[in-house]
Protein 1
Amino acid sequence: MKLNSQILVSQTSRLKTSWMGIVLLMLALPIPALAALGGDVTSVQKDQAQMKGAVKTTETPAYTTHVITAPGKIVVKEYVSLTGKVFAITWQGEVIPSMQQLLGTYFDQFAQAAKAQRESHPGHRPVSIQQADFVFQNGGHMRSYVGRAYVPAMVPQGVNVDALQ
Amino acid sequence: MRSFLVLILVGTLGFLVGCGNNGTPSGVAISVTLTPSSASLTASQSVNITASVANDSSGKGVSWALTGVGALSNQTTTGATYTAPATVTTTSVATVVATSIASPTSSGSAAITVSPAGTTTNVVPISVNGGPLLTANPPVIYTNAAFVSVNLCAPSGACQTIPDILVDTGSFGLRVLGSELNSTLAAALTPLNDGNGNTVYDCVQFVDNSFLWGAVAPATIVLGGETATSTSIQIIANPSFSIPGGCTGTNEDTQALLGANGILGVGPEPFDCGTACDPGAGGTAPTVYYLCSSGGSCSTTFVSCGALCNDSIPNQQVTNPVFNFPTDNNGVILTLPQVNDVASTVSGTLTFGIGTESNNTLPTTATLFTLTTGDNFTTNYGGQALTGSFIDSGSNGLFFPQLGGSPVICTDNADWYCPATTTQLTATNVDPNNGTTSNTVTFDVDNFDTVTNANPSDAAFSNLAGPMGVGPCSGSNTGACAFDWGLPFFYGRSVFTAIDGTTTTYGNGPFWAY
């Protein structure tokens, strides 16, 4: 069977003139191979490519939302602060998206906490992680998963992370 | 002479060691396993049960006891015959227990569903009994999990009864550890392939960074008197090649890691992926089904789900076996007895079909909840509407958001609640489509650490709960917008699960009713 790997991009993010300098500085910095949470805005495109999805971007005064739709009816929303950091990610879908891709450098914290949970008692249960620098939850059932992750220190002033749509 | 004395001494010491530890050397416990461990009979039918006793150095075997209807005969230290009564007016579960004579604290049991004569045997027994790891070394107890035996056959006819399969209303399809198949069945099950030497594999990712990976093969599945033919199952196994991304974390391909011999997904869907994995979806296939060459090069692929997916190619996705029964195929009823806080084991039934036989009608007192496209309903809890709620026998507790720091989360186990004292809470389930049909549930939450430490050998706990995220539910895009009614919800209830794409006399699936 042929694998259809067409990638669709409907809209690219617009840069605010006043932040151009900071964005150019960001682009000059080394970009991690894996991306998203805690990463910079270019990591969003890496996630989109890995997930073979389409991305649509919306701007609000406090942050920019990149919505990636991917096979398996997956919708991932990556919230980028005005300083260009992905401070929160939410997801829902029939299939769980790649946590390795989405959590970037925070994947190890997730993997360790999940492993401890699994090894303490048998059985599959929702995962809920509350660490000072990493908050994560994921739950649901086959064909209906919902979760989110965010870095408290990166959430912009005045943004209620619990209200992110 | 001297050597003779030595022999006597050794023999005596052996005897003393034996006595001191109930007939076995210390550290090697006697365990009793019955075959079959479950059966479904109608009136007057019989089944021969054999007991195998591990580490029974004295060879004393077992003695037998029966609770429930019927009678035992032909009892020996290795076997017995169970016969159902001649007159059976209502379905019940009888339990046959074999106790080691050398070690009276070691026993094994078999659960037998007895149904009235002339009925299709649409009921199988289920047990919340701590699971197969109880006989592991060291033993591990899998609490709040209901296990069933499945008779799995290759299309060619070779069959094997596989016990200790988790009953899961939160997933769809039968998944069995390849390591548990005998060589005949393993050789007879032929995985799907594309005709070019590429095999179809299935990836099931769980939220806790674990997964199931394995080939998809058509099989015949027999549960009680119900048979599903040409039904794709997943054979869980670690392949000789690298598993592609889409399945990350821990591969639960052994009994030790999975805690069971497999999972019987009997939730409200016929297929484990549905239209998203059907070729009609177009674009790129999701990370569920793969075509892998014999050299281990895998790529995602679509697999048809047949007519229900508007596909002329017959369904080959991993399928809820109930959906493929010739009758009694529109859902299941999971029934478990009341548990007042803790019970060592409880037995119940898994009944096939809703409104198709005299034993699967929906009571007029029941509440029926139609579901969203994601198979969820709404639970009003803590002043919020949790719109992603569901009933899941495969979750071994109740899981709901922590609000305002309550209930307190255990410091040692962040996936469970540890309130200082047992706390009573209420939540109201609401039909998401009509917004009015509702039912209020009152439940208790124990301190997980206290109650499990105090009852380390018990399998059923009615008051175990844990966090489904922390903080309020806003919109639909956080993990804290769901109430997961896990196995404790089933204690003292009959929960009806109707399958999407089927009809019942009470309305079309999918729905939950209790």
Note: The first helix of chain A runs from residue 20 to 28.
Protein 2
Amino acid sequence: MFYSPVITNASEAAKSDKLHLFRYVEDPDQVKVATYEQHGGYKAWRKALTGMSPEQVAETVKNAGLRGRGGAGFPTGLKWGFVPKNSPKPRYLVCNADESEPGTCKDRVLMERDPHAVIEGMAIAAYAIGCHVMFIYIRGEFNHSIDRMEAAMREAYAAGHLGKNLYGTGYDLEMIVHTGGGAYICGEETALLNSLEGERGMSRMRPPFPAIEGLYACPTIVNNVETLATVPHIINHGAEWYRKLGTEKSAGTKIFSLSGHVKRPGNYEVELGFNLKKFIYDPAFGNGIIGDKKLKGVIPGGASTPFLTPDMIDVGLDYESLTVKGSMLGSGAVIVFHEQTCIVWVLLKLIHFFHHESCGKCTPCREGTAWLEQIIHRIEAGEGHPGDIEAMDEVCSNILGRTICPLGDAAVMPIQSAIRLYRDEWQYHIDNHRCLVDTRFEFK
Amino acid sequence: MADSTKIETPARTVETVTFTINGRTATVAKGTTVLQAAHGLGITIPSFCWHPKLKPVGACRMCYVEIEKMPKLQVSCATEVTNGMVVFTESDKVKQGRRAIIEFTLLNHPLDCPTCDKGGECDLQNLTFAHGYDDSRFAFQKLRKIEAGVPSTFDDIKIGPEIVLNRNRCILCYKCVRANKEAFGEYDLGAFERGNHTEINAAPGQQVDNPFSGNLVEICPVGALTNTDWRYKIRVWLTDQKASICPFTSSGTNIQFYVERHKNRIFRTTGRRNDAIDDGWLSDVTRYGYQIIQSPDRLKTPLIKKNGKQVPATWDEALAVAAARLTEIRDKKGCVCVGGLASPSLDNASLYTFNKFMRVAMESNNVDYRTEYRRLPSSLDNPYDIAASQAFTIADIDESDVIVVIGSDLVREHPNEYLRVRKAEQFNRSKVFLLNPLSTKPSDVAALELVHKPGAEEIAISAICLAAMESGWASGVNADDLKSKTGFKKAADAAGACGLDLIEIQAVARAIAEGKKITIIAGELVTRSREREAIGAALCNLNRVFGVDGKGQMAILARHANSVGAARLGLTPDLGAGFAGALKSIWGQYPETPPQNTDAMLAAARKEELDAMILVGVNPVMIYPDREFAREALDKLDFLIACDLFETETTQLADVVLPLAGWAEYRGEYFNLEGRLQSAEPGIAPLNEARPAHQILESLAEQCGSPLFAGMDQRNAEMEKILKVDIRRPWPTGLIEVKPQPQETAPERTVALIMGDDPHHSGYLTEKAPSLVGFCGEAYAELSPELAAKLKVGAGDSVRLEAATGKIIVPVRVSEHIDNDVVFVPRNFMAAPVNSLVSRKQRVDWVKISKVSD
Ligand SMILES: Cc1cc2nc3c(=O)[nH]c(=O)nc-3n(C[C@H](O)[C@H](O)[C@H](O)COP(=O)(O)O)c2cc1C
Ligand code: SF4
Ligand code: SF4
Ligand code: FES
């Protein structure tokens, strides 16, 4: 088997006693259950199942301060606690591996290179919520991830980490690998559940929240791959250890996918709160901008987060600091643009994506994203009208906060920030029917 | 007239919440949405995707309201009222939000209102005028969804026999898809693609032709879904609405006709939502059935047989001939020589007039309204009629946690109750059990479907009773008594005898025992059985064992629009002393002659012991189980009068044919299966020379020298008195002996024939509705893939079905849902008279089946 080549900071992680997610991702044998066990794998699962109550597990994760790595940053232990205690219905755990946010490619690395960590994390989470059938919903195009996860699952069954009467405790746990429906929206947890049920991948209204009524109308917890892969480490080393990593409110480490105009794009595990500027320029990470050009802007958390201009990048990569700067940590995909990038062109690409991926359920997102694309397309083509910027801004505000799921917000937040931060450039496009910068956005 | 039979459900205490809306304080039941609460207070909130009978989805975002302490606008259709909530529906923010939604919705809308058939009743049109901008800021080419290679002026595509789709007009409220799925359980329509490329369309390779498809058109808020029945024929504002009742099933579905003002023509039928009955859903038969009234094939004038040929005559001539012959035969000394059959779909006045005509003017007790059943009991005192007379409330199905359907192909017999059962499962998570000799439609929502051997209904029911007693889930009766009354020592024996697993039987027994609110529905497969009395006895025992009457309802449902009325107005031949006495005191006379039911009358006619018959809206040749028997009998009569809307195989035998007016042509009252009395307004005046049955019978009586009423008031006063007679029979207090009458063993190389109605073809008249014919096409034989393979037939082939009494040739339909030893053939197709394969004597109709090689 081979896997997608990507730069990681595994060697650094191997030396560190803080970084844990990436410690073994460069070891080609890590995908095998024996190697994983040699590296201390499945110890946490055994410990949780044989030595802890489900409540203790949830409590530990809660005390560790782990927050969801799928984008919203919701405290994981707290979420598990929402599962009704005495519901007669079965409960389900679903690992969200639909990773489709432009710029985000961290879950794939974990699935391809450390699949047992994902399984172990899922198993512990399943136990914490009293679930006996767990699913992993993997993006349909991720062929390697699917193969790896299936192979690992089979090994885990064979090694007795999954199946019936685990470790002699009487606890049964089955796992199902499900390949995704091929849409970005299927990563949104309620659309994911619809898709998993065999329905069209469209978001559901909340409430009810999945923790109360999710898959097949039963209590369901949806967690991101990275979130779950973190759980075994917390169980092994304790909540205190994890809490001390990162910042006070953003505990732990996180994988950031660095892409765009940097010399060393890749996936890097760092402690939360890591300085963004350092992340872009440090030789161990981005190693600076391609061609040593000037920086124009950064999207710090995936395609749906607002821009940061060069004067704003001296900031910690954590939930709170980025919010202060008007952006978000999101899924941790840092996209860097150098000075010769046309901002209108970037936004055209982004809005095209969101228009294309809108599930079509609610009016503002369905119609608004298409309209925005048409306006931006016209501006980019040098045919913008006076008033287009204002129209765009208004369309954005008619979408923001008025849709069923956050995709609508995700589509307009980068646009609004780009208008705010780069207004002159938009205006130049409209007034002069051409681009302010002469080179287009290219990854070279 | 008061509705005397409706049972009141005890008022439940509901938790309430108090909130403020536009400065008004109000209290509503907990769980009410803001939108519903507002509507209840007379505050309208505009909406597109909300539908009172579907789960809210919050898709259109038109129903925004502002709620204090919530920074974002909220969709009122999906937000429940909470205590202390402060709601504004007309704030500037709300108005701005709505305007934006209208603007978004219109972006790609073609605005082809002048050529759109929805104009005048379009939600988008109306709400745009009320809430939208005057102008559009959208300066781009509109998205146009067209079918490559299908030329069409308005980008229309036909997605079903009736339904035309225009995707450009669609505003993607998803109501059609949701109703199809949530309410009807159908998946022939879906959404495809994403974003603003999303479109509604028929499922690949399928047509939208489910039995409820017409509703999709009715609930579409715009002109995206229209039906060929109505489109481009008239503008809605040129019509008047007339409130009517569906005559095709026993539910009494509330409908309205759209009639061209000052002209005598109906253009369509839509629902007139009545939550107690229909939730606003109509089956296609109910929706398109009105077309039969305006069929060009309607009888135009009376006909009189002269020299063996029926020739047109005036009413005066026809009535004179009829009266002369009837009086002559009536007055022959020493025998009862006149009989009559009336349709249970007729209105009360007609049925009552018929009854009095027969018993008073004709001095005969040869009266019946049940033409399609074999071995009828003559009187009402038998276990079958006890079970059939029980109180039943349609709306109570919704709240039953356990629903058992016994001997009923629900969607084909009771489409409305079929939807209720689905609703109970969908919205109330009720457990549904099906006990039938074939797999039937709600099986997809059934907790368990039990398919027993044909002709073993009472054994299966007994097995349930025995299983409950054996396992201690029920204790209503003495176990030994039950064993001796059912003739089985053990539940396992009974289960085996009807071809079921004991575990399945136990599951049903346990569910009934543990259910808190039970609904048990029995239907036509019971009623049509030769052993209906044995099955009725088993049902009585079921009630006793589980105490069903104490925690729910159980009844054999009436099948026709006014079956209940017919029974209550005394159209059963032998009424028993009490009922007959009541009639005698009203009429001052009552015939002494022996009462004869349909079977007896036809048998007598065959033996030439009955000389004349009058048939009102019935077609025995088509529906009597044993076609040849009925035809011969009618043929042997000296004199036959047939009143009908059309020429039929029965009217062809008549000496006098009288054109009957249909239900849409005169005012009538009907009792639905619950005993609920409802009135139907006429849509139009009778066409041609047709007359309502009651009018014909009154004239005839007058001509016979025995006028029935001094006027309408007298008739109504008499009816009111009769309806005071309670024909309801209480459940027996002890067990009844069930004499199991297992089916005759199957002769070699035969399958069991099961007749029923096609969901788009109910009754012998619906073939006259072009829209319905478009759905159901021709008759067919439904068989399992295995049987088809054995016979080496597939779609496109035909099979020959043969019995001692006749044979028919029909095309094959292969269905996954049918078992190997049965074949289903729909009734009432003129070209394939399946009742010719049926014998009155047998319990199960075994037929030989073979491939027709051409
Ligand atoms: C449009 C959209 C796409 C999303 N895609 C993903 C995804 O690919 N992977 C993921 O883990 N979460 C995704 N999410 C977030 C999920 O809805 C959900 O919040 C997350 O899986 C919860 O896991 P966590 O608590 O571990 O973060 C997406 C959300 C939205 C609105
Ligand atoms: S916001 Fe967009 S993606 Fe989310 S439900 Fe609405 S249309 Fe679908
Ligand atoms: S076809 Fe009509 S009902 Fe269906 S989604 Fe479109 S507008 Fe709504
Ligand atoms: S009616 Fe509430 S969102 Fe459509």
Note: Chain B touches chain A through 36 residues (CB under 8 Å).
